Amino acid sequence: MTAYLAHYLVMVGIYAILAVSLNLLIGYSGIFSLAHAAIYGIGAYASALAALKLGLGFWGGLVVAAGVGAFASALVAIPSLRVAGDYYVVASFGLRVVVLAVCMNWTDLTNGHAGRPGIPRPNVFGWVIDEPFEYVILSVAFAALTYAVCWRLTNSAFGRVLQAIRDDEIAAQAMGKNVMQVKIVVACISSALGAMAGSLYAHYITYINPSSFALHESIFIASLVILGGSERLAGPIVGAFVLLAIPEALKFLAIPDTVAAPLRQVIYGALLVAFMLLRPEGLLGRARAQVRDGR
Amino acid sequence: MAAEAATQRAAGSTPILAVRGLARAFGGIRAVDECTFDVRPGLITGLIGPNGAGKTTVFNLITGFLKADRGSILLRGTELLGLPPHEVERRGVVRTFQHLRLWSKMTVLENVLLGCATPMGESVFSLFLRTAAVRAEDTRARERAMEVLEFFGLAGRRHQLAEDLAYPEQKLLSMARIFATDAPVMLLDEPASGLDGESLRRIVPLVRRLVAHGKTVLLIEHNMELIAELSDVVVFLHQGRVLAAGAPAAITRDPALTEIYFGV
Amino acid sequence: MLGLPLALAVAGAIVAAAGSGLLIDRFIYQPLERRGALRTTLFIASLGLLILIENLLAIVFKPDPLRLEVGRLADAVRIGPVYLTWLHLVSVATAAFAYLGLMAFLKYSRWGQAMRAVSSSPEMARTVGIDLRRVHLLTYAVGSAISAPAGILLAMDVGADPYRGTTYVLLASVAVIMGGIGSIPGALLGALFLALLENLGVWKIASEWQSTISFGAFLIFIVLRPRGIFGRKIQSAEI
What we know:
The complex is a heterotrimer of chains A (295), B (264) and C (239). Chain A has helices at 2-29, 36-53, 58-80, 85-105, 107-110, 132-154, 157-167, 169-174, 179-205, 215-228, 235-251, 257-278, and strands at 116-117, 123-124, 127-128, 207-208.
């Protein structure tokens, strides 16, 4: 039972990193990105390949993952953010599709469908992490680090600028803020963190394959943010705890496997719709009459 | 009297903002056409004209929100044409909006803080690596923000959300935040619209105090009396062209211009 | 499954699609809009619906791909040096019919004109007495109805499974953006352009990279001409 709980906590940690970093975009900057699963996957693959092909350890893989993630994000953000925010949604959606195609088809690099096994365990100054409990510590530590980084970002002049951009971009420009630049920076940071989560995942499962980039993964991460509450930094963390518990709860009911997976998704879909109708600000958000986009 | 003296003063000094031959068309319509006028330092210049004359378009062109087809906008000799809005602000021109555009979900203090200079706090690099310096900068910014709020009489409301303020105070806030930027040229888009009674009466001395602090003001207004009382120089715009520029008394009493203004 | 003749099945599909569109708009989108929901909220609700419906279909109908009986339509037809199947011809004919029908509807029918009025200015439309809610419902019904034949043709051509829809929606969105949002001729051109691009690309590049080609084209387009071919100039917000 404890190994089971440990797995749950490790995944909560990883998803917390993903959700909190995505919230930088969705909640604080007003940029809705569907590409986070792609970034997650890029991080996982980059880290895995760095370990398998270049012989870099966990830490090297982490740095590579963050770098590649930030770069990919900038590549998409720079053209898309010049135009209306809606375009970014489509572009981020497209990025995910492209990343999936690359993973499936660039078989020399990624081994396609079959994925890559044999990723080494993380090695922290000689302490090899291979017990479930040790992973929990690693995962939680990184989640705390991510939270601290995001906290520093949002509770600062930079954070004020982000919120100003979200509330009224035109006014921010008139007051001398270089909105494009700020958005790109935030996208890169968010992606670097998300890619790190991917790296953690790769070294935890020690095996990766393209299934991590399903669209549903992107929507799942977004729902952690939205349902948990995008106004508070801690909202997505609560979202992670709750939403990851649902499949575990479902396991207690005797449902045939073929139905279990889509059923879980049906529940997610229904939850999303229900929350938008009944409590759009999420679990941790402040109930407030929403204001129509003044655009 | 004071206005005429000011205009005489004006005749001598070089303009801080020189708009030359500005033009901008939308489809077939020439919203702004061969627009030329000066804004002299330390004076209040009023931009008036009938509806649709192109006044707000001129503001948008000067501040870079619209790209001009032709012309030149010189701020102390530096060309502003073609610069994006944030660069225009960096060079020294700020503006308010007719629809205010306050950051409604942020507090009064935060709205003004965004105008105070916090380059280190806004740089991710400095934020993580120079925490002491960032903290010092933040303290200075807050002090400055409080000064500005006191100046505008908003200090008591500093922790309220901008959307919770009464309209006259929201107008004050929109001026307060651009004042905090220290930019020498302030473009005010209808500062008095929507105000009446006490708050309307307070606009004139407030704008005069801005000038006393060394600012140059270019404002758009529909209220003829207000313009006449407040401005040192008036520029009359019609169908995108400058028809006349000079002392307010002369322009507001000119029968031909009044006819155009009221469309009689 | 039910063994009904094709014509009835097609009609049924169109009705089902239109009906779903109506229900979704009536019970989810319109209530959200009435509450002043943010655009993001609407978008997430639509994502939730996407997942919900896709997976419901998977549970009810099994997630394996479904291939419709095509019968005679698979026979080849020769036009000059090119070999096509009847199915291809039917697809093109359907598209032409849908396009022309829609354009005619928008131009000549009362409801179509009402839709255009609401699109250009909702406030004005309301003042001349147009019922915005009905027009909104109609728009969703018509849009959903038109997508039904596409689904059927796809099911005949490459097969269908509950999850395939998302890819096509992405392609459609890209086509709409490239053609210019708000322009139906633009959407048609955008779709043709995209289809040409993908298939020409396949000729030279391996077929797995098809989606990359579309996405790449999209990025290039938004850099060079964000408003698309026929779109209105993208105005920055009212200042």
